Each structure stands twice: as C-alpha cells, then as structure tokens.
Amino acid sequence: xxxxxxxxxxxxxxxxxxxxxxxxxxxxxxxxxxxxxxxxxxxxxxxxxxxxxxxxxxxxxxxxxxxxxxxx
Length: 72
Known about the structure:
Strand order of the largest sheet: 2-1-3
Distance between the termini: 27 Å
Helix content: 40-55%
Number of helices: 3
Number of strands: 3
Largest sheet: 3 strands, antiparallel
C-alpha cells in the first residue's frame, strides 16, 4: 500500500472520528505502508508492536484524537 492510500483508507477515518484507540503506522518488509491497531480486545498492547518499532525506525504510534488535536 502506498503512503497516500494508507492515509486515506486507515488514518483519516480515525482522525475524523477522533478515536482514542492507538494505531501504528509502519513500513512492511516490502517497504509498503501499513497501519494497524496496537491493542487487542482486552486493551493489552500486541506483542508484535515492539518488533515492528525495532524493525522500522519510521514506525510511530498515534490515535485519531491525538492527530485531530494537532491538525486543528
């Protein structure tokens, strides 16, 4: 997925609704952009999140509400 496709399809809906669930934006092994929620249904951070952050130095965790607050 390209960066712009990921923003349009995954990040912008979360910003619009002001969601508080955290998600991570990262590049996969083929350098495509991905976006996934970081917690399971019990509110626990998924094990793979630490692996993704160590594999991709550009990986970052956001929430829709946090991005909404900086975008005005």
